[in-house]
Design goal:
CATH class of the largest domain: Mainly Alpha
Distance between the termini: 27 Å
CATH superfamily of the largest domain: Butyryl-CoA Dehydrogenase, subunit A, domain 3
Shape: globular
Mean pLDDT: 93
Strand content: 5-15%
Number of helices: 20
CATH architecture of the largest domain: Up-down Bundle
Length: 594
């Protein structure tokens, strides 16, 4: 591990990763597989039989299942052993998040509790706070919640109106304000609350439900995730001991934003797990549904739907576990004493803010695509509440809103990259200049490729990076510090970056399997990468054309489009046959095939 290269956040745009240096599910250890088996067994025994009751907000049942999850260690994968957790790696956490994120509203209770309800204390609490709160949270004795959003401060979180002032005797902070849309609010024993000390210094606090002056409002009536508690949390002269200040006065943004980064990655993992379940549910129905004397799974358009669901899920799975490995590499180089430092943890987590936003956007949009096709394959039955597709459809929609809307995350991706450039941490603009100066003779048609299964796809991923670099470099030149105001341009750059990380993650995983086990063992992964790249290259070219058409005109526009045509020059493959091969494998297994 010590000799392994530690990639910087966003570096994937300017550096080609080595497949063996990227973590993938094929690298699971026996311990990882055992954790996965434990989580799956828990879902089958405790969650699956109680889905209907869970949707009725049976808080006794919910908290009982949460405690059982704690007994199995499923709540404490991120919590160090000395505080009652398991202290496992981020890959293990991803496995549990993926598995428990597949079905029912309990996934929401679990995700908030173990994520934004516990991680602020795990990573930013002092020794006394960790000893006091983490054992209760890791065991499930307490349920955790996170209070950031306000009526006037959603995406603009630092605009919070909740205030904190020191009491006359100096022993408490007095909090006043109201937080909204707080998951687990009705059941939580502890809340991580953000308020402005003296109306100015954005600060985190650990607030217990029994502190004087804290209460919750009525349950929200929601479109989906009916089994989770969502209420406003109201603080009226709430007395919070000074020792419950989390991290440092005025440094609440460090906690909030970095914990949200981890929350976004975990949500990407949970969404990916849900996508796998949609593939399984859809194919089982398609195999059993007979029309015109044949199962509908034998029909070409149904096969295409099943294949596309699995291919996108494969890309999501590849990127989520790649990111888990990156976190483990980065946090692993910190010594034990350093890992207990909130500031050092913040630096390590912030390093991969771009990749966390990518995982969140891609994972949640992959799930929405999968649930939509799941409903479509079931037809009228998919629209009926007696079938799980209907619940999946309703429950998935919130994922593109919380943990930062997907629109906000699309703005964050280029903005964070540009901040890294300004800080001298990412050599992106000079790389963009170098690419712009290259002769534009990179078309697929002008290159002799080696006789390897994914040579063309490797080339096109590299060309996609060049396109994104040129577009970003020209946008920065034109708009400079005002680029962030050009949201349509920024969003298109973000979409290119997202697709590049997805393509490359799936490609690297397939190349690793080829290297270790041979191309025969990687047949379906090869097919997935070929289909996805074939589908994505025209999308990246279109995004770039739209940006250039907005920024340039006349001869300059024609020159930009000519260069783009050379870089994106790509002869489409037969994508029908590999889709059919993937679909046939799904139909045979009646489950996700990778």
């Amino acid at each position: 591990m010590n000799d392994k290269r530690i990639y910087s956040g966003g570096e994937f745009l300017i550096a080609d990763a080595i497949p063996d240096e990227v973590f993938s599910p094929e690298d699971f250890t026996d311990e990882h597989r055992m954790i996965g088996d434990t989580a799956r067994d828990f879902v089958l025994k405790e969650i699956q039989p109680n889905i209907e009751k869970l949707d009725e907000k049976d808080h006794v049942l919910v908290l009982g299942i949460l405690a059982k999850a704690g007994d199995l260690g499923l709540l404490g994968t991120d919590v160090p052993e000395k505080y009652g957790g398991l202290g496992l790696d981020k890959v293990s956490t991803t496995i549990v998040s993926e598995t428990l994120g597949r079905r029912s509203s309990f996934a929401i209770v679990y995700g908030v509790h173990t994520g934004i309800g516990t991680m602020p204390i795990t990573y930013f609490g002092n020794e006394e706070q960790k000893k006091k709160y983490l054992p209760k949270l890791a065991s499930g004795e307490w349920c955790g919640a996170y209070c950031l959003t306000e009526a006037g401060a959603g995406s603009d979180a630092l605009n919070a109106g909740t205030k904190a002032v020191i009491s006359e005797d100096g022993r408490h902070y007095i909090l006043n304000g109201e937080k909204i849309f707080i998951t687990n609010a009705g059941w939580a024993s502890s809340f991580v609350v953000y308020a402005k000390v003296d109306g100015e210094k954005f600060t985190g606090f650990i607030v217990e439900k029994d502190f004087p002056g804290i209460s919750t409002g009525a349950e929200e009536k929601k479109m989906g995730v009916h089994g989770s508690s969502t209420r406003p949390v109201i603080m009226e002269d709430t007395e919070v001991p000074v020792e419950n200040v989390l991290f440092e006065i005025g440094k609440g943004h460090k906690i909030a934003f970095n914990v949200l980064n981890l929350g976004r990655w975990k949500l990407g993992a949970a969404s990916m797990g849900g996508s796998k379940d949609c593939v399984t549910g859809a194919v089982k129905y398609a195999n059993s549904r007979v029309q015109f004397n044949a199962p509908i799974s034998s029909f070409g358009m149904i096969k295409s739907k099943l294949a596309d669901m699995a291919i996108r899920t494969y890309m999501a799975e590849s990127m989520v576990y790649r990111l888990a490995g990156m976190f483990d590499d980065k946090l692993g180089i910190l010594g034990e004493e350093t890992r207990t430092s909130g500031s050092e943890n913040a630096k390590a987590i912030e390093e991969y803010a771009v990749e966390c936003s990518i995982a969140k956007v891609y994972g949640t949009e992959c799930l929405d695509m999968c649930v939509d096709e799941y409903v479509q394959i079931l037809g009228g039955y998919g629209f009926c509440a007696d079938y799980p597709a209907e619940r999946y459809y309703r429950d998935s929609r919130i994922n593109r809103i919380w943990e930062g809307t997907n629109e906000i995350n699309r703005l964050l991706i280029p903005r964070t990259l540009m901040r890294r450039v300004m800080q001298g941490r990412l050599n992106l603009l000079s790389e963009a200049e170098a690419v712009s100066a290259e002769p534009m003779e990179h078309s697929q048609r002008s290159i002799q490729f080696p006789d390897t299964p994914l040579a063309i796809q490797e080339h096109m991923v590299k060309m996609s990076k060049k396109i994104a670099l040129i577009v970003t470099g020209e946008a920065v030149k034109k708009y400079q510090e005002d680029l962030i105001k050009e949201q349509e341009v920024v969003a298109r750059i973000a979409d290119m970056v997202i697709e590049i990380f997805a393509m490359e993650s799936g490609l690297l995983r397939a190349l690793k399997i080829i290297s270790r086990d041979g191309k025969e063992m990687a047949g379906h992964q090869i097919a997935a990468v070929r289909v996805y790249v074939d589908e994505t290259i025209p999308r990246i070219e279109c995004l770039a054309r739209q940006v250039f058409a907005y920024m340039e005109e006349g001869e300059m526009l024609r020159a930009r489009l000519a260069d783009l045509k050379k870089l994106a020059g790509y002869q489409p493959i037969d994508a029908v046959s590999p889709r059919r091969a993937i679909a046939d494998r799904i139909i045979e297994l009646e489950s996700y095939p990778f």
